[in-house]
Design brief:
Blueprint: E1 8-9, E2 14-19, E3 22-27, E4 33-37, E5 39-43, E6 46-58, E7 67-75, E8 80-84, E9 87-88, H1 89-93, E10 98-105, E11 109-117, E12 122-126, E13 131-133, H2 152-156, H3 158-165, E14 170-174, E15 177-182, E16 185-189, H4 198-203, E17 215-220, H5 226-233, E18 237-243, H6 247-258, H7 261-264, E19 267-270, E20 273-275, E21 279-285, E22 304-312, H8 313-323, E23 328-333, H9 339-348, E24 357-363, H10 372-380, E25 383-387, E26 398-405
Parallel strand pairs: 17-18, 17-23, 18-19, 20-22, 23-24
Antiparallel strand pairs: 1-4, 2-3, 3-12, 4-11, 5-11, 6-10, 6-12, 6-13, 7-8, 7-9, 7-11, 14-15, 15-16, 21-22, 24-26, 25-26
Length: 412
């Protein structure tokens, strides 16, 4: 989908409502103006269409030919309307509620999707207008219909899914499950916990980076593979080495990677954990319900035993750096407490000079350990650290930081 934001609601014209998860404006009699406007997002040159959804509440005995709304598409800050349609009372009385406007952009432009109303009728207007390239299947950009045959997760999470839809995710029902797509990346949603991962990856884009140099990324804690796919989408990234020790999570990641054949050739996945030991490791784990959020640290006698294969972080990073001498090596590390052991062995092996940048989510998993135990060796190795960990983080929860190796000072 090409629109990842709802239009703005004009409160001088109507009232904001949330109906079955849909963000709508209910217009009032005798209030004219643009009921929705914006969201002022850029589009490249090309041919497109946008869909507007407008429903009658009270047409006030209007004549059939009375115009009650005019959806339009504009550029140049609203100064130039490039497509519009006059919606009459007759059209709404016949049951028509979806209106499609085709438009062409000769060059890249900031586009606005608006609906003007004269205040002659009370209407319900959806604030989100899906947009797609001309020729695209309209069903692919519409929110799926809620029926008794829809998957259980769709029924349970329809409000949350509608929020995601209105922020630019397309949603498809397939094989009694869901496939979501954002920014050209497709992935399965099999359980409610899968939705917890989405905002930071695709909306906040915490793992997005830009570089004019080639890079390889080491994804420690691949989880469901979504971040690896986002890295693979990055044109500066040549390879993504992705590691996930838990077989069930690893299988789900492979399933997501397979949905994206144009990106999968960049990803080198391995069902291996990275840490401060090498070889087989038997631990007890507890299923905490979070998608893929499991630690290679033993959870105690109450868990279920599982054997994992582990690789020594220092050996792994050395090998990848040797194989890609022309590339910057970037590490994304999110491994539920194992990050402390990883940092220890990299520091002891004096390997920070071979790593250009790190993105780390750390966890209160080891008593007495905090993010500072990870940041200190980076600073000593000449990294500039951007710490996003909340001030309130004391004894539980997660923290997050970036580290970038500083360039040497230029000679005076």
């Amino acid at each position: 989908m090409l629109n990842n934001k709802s239009s703005t609601i004009n409160y001088n014209v109507g009232t904001s409502r949330c109906i079955n998860g849909k963000s709508v404006v209910e217009t009032e009699f005798n209030r004219d103006g643009h009921a929705i406007y914006g969201p002022y997002l850029p589009l490249s040159s090309g041919q497109y269409y946008a869909e507007f959804n407008i429903y009658p509440i009270d047409l006030n005995d209007l004549h059939d030919d009375e115009v009650v709304a005019i959806p339009d598409i504009s550029i140049d800050g609203g100064a130039a309307s490039i497509s519009s349609e006059q919606i009459t009372a007759k059209l709404l009385r016949t049951g028509k509620t979806r209106f499609t406007l085709n438009f062409t952009l000769e060059k890249k432009a900031v586009v606005e999707y608006r609906v003007w109303v004269p205040g002659k009728a009370r209407l319900e207007i959806e604030s989100y207008c899906p947009v797609a390239a001309a020729g695209s299947d309209p069903e692919k950009i519409r929110f799926p219909k809620i029926t008794a045959h829809a998957p259980a997760i769709f029924q349970e999470q329809k409000l949350r899914l509608r929020q995601l839809y209105e922020s630019g995710f397309s949603i498809e029902i397939l094989q009694n499950s869901l496939i979501l797509q954002r920014d050209g990346i497709r992935f399965w949603i099999d359980q409610s916990d899968d939705l917890h991962l989405i905002d930071e990856i695709f909306v906040e884009r915490v793992y997005n980076f830009e570089s004019d140099r080639p890079a390889v990324v080491v994804d420690v804690g691949m989880n469901l593979g979504l971040v690896s796919l986002q890295f693979a989408k990055n044109s500066s990234v040549k390879k993504v080495y992705s590691f996930e020790p838990f077989p069930s999570t690893y299988s789900r990641a492979l399933r997501n990677i397979a949905l994206n054949p144009d990106l999968s050739s960049k990803i080198i996945p391995a069902n291996v954990g990275i840490g401060d030991i090498e070889g087989p490791l038997t631990i007890n784990i507890v299923d905490n319900g979070d998608s893929g959020a499991q630690s290679t640290r033993d959870s105690g006698e109450n868990g279920t035993p599982i054997e994992l294969e582990m690789a020594l972080a220092s050996s792994l990073f050395n090998k990848i750096a040797d194989e890609n001498p022309e590339c910057d090596l970037i590490a994304k590390i999110d491994c539920e407490g194992a990050e402390f052991g990883i940092f220890d062995v990299i520091t002891r092996a004096e390997l920070w000079s071979r790593i250009s940048a790190v993105m780390v989510e750390w966890h209160h998993a080891i008593p007495g350990k905090s993010g500072e135990d990870l940041i200190a060796p980076l600073k000593k190795a000449g990294f500039l650290v951007f710490d996003r960990s909340p001030h309130t983080l004391v004894h539980n929860g997660n923290g997050f930081f970036y580290g970038v190796r500083k360039a040497p000072h230029a000679a005076a």
